[in-house]
Amino acid sequence: MRFGSLLLAAASVASAVQAYWLGDVPHRGLAPFAGNNYPVFRNVRDYGARGDGVTDDTAAINAAINAGNPCNKGCASTTTTPAVVYFPAGTYLISSSILPAYFTHLIGDAASPPTLKATPNFAGFGLIDGNPYYSPVLNWKAVNVFFRQIRNFVLDTTAIPPATQATGLHWPTSQATSLQNLVFNMPTAANVVHVGLFMEEGSGGFITDLTFNGGATGASMGNQQYTMRNLRFNNCKTAIIQLWNWGWTYHGLSINNCQVGIDISAGGPSKVETGSITLFDSTFTNVPVAIKTAWTYSSSPATAGSMVLENIALNNVGVAVQGPGGTMLTGTGGSTTIAAWGNGHSYLPNGPTNFAGPITPNPRPASLLGANGRYYVRSKPQYENLPASSFLSARAAGARGDAAADDTAALQSAIDASVAQNKILFIDHGLYRVTRTIRIPPGAIIVGEAFPVILSSGPFFNDINNPKPVVQVGATSGQAGYVELSDFIVSTQNVQAGAICIEWNLATSGTPSGMWDVHVRIGGFTGTQQQIAQCPKTPGNPAVNPNCLVAFMAMHVTKQAKGLYMENVWLWTADHDIDEQLNTQITIYSGRGLYIEATSGPFWLWGTGSEHHVLYQYQLANTRDIFMGQIQTETPYFNPVPNALVPFPPVAALNDPDFRASCARGGEGNCAAAWGLRVINSKNVLVYGAGLYSFFDNYSTSCSTFSAGQTCQQRITSIEGVAENVNIYNLNTIGTREMINRDGNRVAWYADGVNTFASNVGVYKSG
Ligand SMILES: *[C@@H]1O[C@H](CO)[C@@H](O)[C@H](O)[C@H]1NC(C)=O
């Protein structure tokens, strides 16, 4: 015993010097609604996990996850019991699944990712099962699984016999979730049946920096939509099997020595299950069949299997695209690059033209590019080279985070102190109530712990005629400088008709400023006073409850701002109460989603969503050089009772849509409904995948089917004025009759683009 504890002491001394800062910083996170002593941070070693590759650590890891009784088996969802479960470097032997709770992040040492190694007789659906089948249905409704991450692990199934079913990670989840920096190691035997990543449902989502080695299938996936980038597949039989989707954006895939690269042939030509994929800046090396599709000129549904390829390098690829009838695009024994190619429906700018063949690649503005002509990308920084002493804790600096105290002054001084001391501000978990604008100055680097919330409150933010930012980045539009922000949430409390959750003023030259996993979450959770008790849904009643105006705008990028990289950013007005176990719907009103009116780019929107805002989800005006992919939107569920004429009067200075005027000019159906995407007088707006959805009419989904005529709203995409190089790949709309409008005129009609569940336009170019 004594010898053992000496070893442990020695190990912890060593780790105090070398370990990842997240393990070393003092842990002060507070979950104000979880009761006293609820541990936000858990180090699996403190719960008995050894990480020695010999001891079975399964029970200890699950004990760390379940400490404090978070939202696990049988719980619908929660925001009140957040957790970070931290794994120091080591090899953790497991014999059954690790079962993370809702709103729980599993994070390994970023400098030395721990290995989760399955025993030969491992039992379970995934080394990590992110949504178990305790019954015939998933534990959590997949489309309501938000706010969870898994980062920095090696998932190793090589000890499981190759012919025995095994899955690395089961991940049916949705928005504001992410996987980052994972390696899946699987056997390479000919009879292997292992699968690295499996998902069958959900409304994702974002995934980056995964490597799959071996196995029958690297990733086998069905989901509404996803953005995935930097995925590497080595020696898998099939790299990716797409089970079903509406739209999928893949960037930076590297598929090597696999027999099939991406298989989107599920369902076959008579019932194609893959709605669409957009694949760009990727390589296939030593792959006999790069892409296998079920699409033909006469396959069904008409546009299903829509595909756009751009900048795809082939090295020793037998067939580039193989259809049911044979080769659609040949490969090469040497090397070649597909500049751009596709199949589906094109509108250049009018259509549809049903096509399969080369297309003109998007002209890419140099400002949007990184290395080798590819679009610029940068994964969320994890600061693995910095010691714990580089971090300043917001709570240690005096902020309370208890959802009650006014933290305005304390949080501001913590931010300012971090910049002055050249440190990273670590916002310990908590709800930081603020009654004035929080200013993030140039030089700030901020990292949250399990999505701490900056919660606006009080009359300062409640004047619809004099809106105020909750978080302001850069003091004035065009202030020069650089920031990095990750892993926190901006929200509002009670009635906040004048709250602009994030105002982005900063003009960054050189390396872009970044927002990674920074979300706006408005309403529907404990502490907001915007829940069922205050704002129940009121189907059929067009009267607006004035106490349920909860935001003026989610995010405003102002005129002189530039140089912002956004990745996995979800600007969500809640449609339901996350903290109520029936997930009952609520009716709250947020005026606007994301508004970019910066006169010059660049801006990147990798894996962003904007949902349930009244006037629009995305609006771009007088701007340029913007990359977007995949974007996802939803119209408010109460639409059109009331419609978008209320309660936010249009503000001309913000280029708000004036539905009273535009719908008077021949607008039919539910014309006065939120735009999913509105682009005014803009240039080089390049959309690589868009899912613009309108599921509801007066809280009923009966309008969002082909048999009902997709009547939830009349129009959803508007391109107005000068539009130079405003191009959209794989636009998928639901519940909307006119898919694209140009200056009020219909360009694309839902019934011409029938896809699996959405309507699809494969290629739109404004000309
Ligand atoms: C809206 O739905 C409610 C109940 O679901 C119904 O009573 C009402 O008549 C509907 N109103 C309209 C305008 O469709």
Rg over CA atoms, rounded to whole Å, is 25 Å
Strand content: over 45%
Termini separation comes to: 76 Å
Regions with pLDDT < 50 over 5+ consecutive residues?
Answer: 1-17
Helix content: under 10%
Work out the helix count: 5
Structural class: mainly beta
| E-strand count | 40
The main β sheet shows up as:
40 strands, mixed
The CATH topology annotation of the domain at 390-691 reads as Pectate Lyase C-like
- Small molecules held by this entry: 2-acetamido-2-deoxy-beta-D-glucopyranose
What form results from the Cα inertia axes? globular
CATH class of the domain at 390-691: Mainly Beta
CATH superfamily of the domain at 390-691: Single-stranded right-handed beta-helix, Pectin lyase-like
Let me know the average pLDDT.
Answer: 96
